[in-house]
Amino acid sequence: MAKAAGGGPDKPSGKGAASRNTSRGAASSKKSALGKATSNDDVDAALVEEGPPNWKNAWPFFVAAGVVALLVLGIVLSSISRPSEERVSDDARVQYAINDLYTAKNGLNYAEYRANTCDADLDKTGFPSEAQFVAENQASLDQNGRIEIPEITDLVVDGDRATAKVHWHYKDKADAKQVVETIVVRENGEWKVCSS
């Protein structure tokens, strides 16, 4: 029995062989389409399902960014519309007045001392002149050091009048602590230390 050149059941050749190979490739493609996917088909399917990022998927981010922007805008507008002086409580302003008075003594700043003293005390005959103020406070600084105020307690504001206990000591004599009952009054919108 003679075989055709290149023929035989194991070795397809010629025109018929090509058509059979093509039909096998088509059959394998059909198998993939019917649900029997290969590993390459799984990767392709995953890429098709995910696709490129879509702006519609980012809407929660845009909403959150909008809320944050509105909060920041509200804070900024609040700060601009209300100056910082108006946001400070009366208790804090009273403490500032007391601290400023003692700071003026430490710094030998007569103008600041007068600015934080009430009109009733300024009008008294015994109120020190600038020369007296500087001389007395310089001598105290040389002998005792600066005045330090660790705390102000029992602060009570009642309308335009406040009382507080000022705990203070000299820097060089920290063991000699003093407590002074202090009166602070509001004059023309500003709190000032007063002797009565």
TrEMBL record:
The record's InterPro entries line, in alphabetical order, gives: NTF2-like_dom_sf
Q: List the taxonomic lineage.
A: Bacteria, Bacillati, Actinomycetota, Actinomycetes, Mycobacteriales
Superkingdom is Bacteria
Cite the entry's keywords alphabetically. Membrane, Transmembrane, Transmembrane helix
Feature: compositional bias, Low complexity: 22-38
What are the TM regions of this chain, as residue ranges? Answer: 58-77
Which residue ranges are recorded for the region named Disordered? 1-40
Q: Which protein are we looking at?
A: DUF4878 domain-containing protein
> What organism is the protein native to?
Gordonia alkanivorans NBRC 16433
Q: Which Gene3D superfamilies match?
A: 3.10.450.50
- Which SUPFAM superfamilies would you find in this protein's record? NTF2-like (SSF54427)
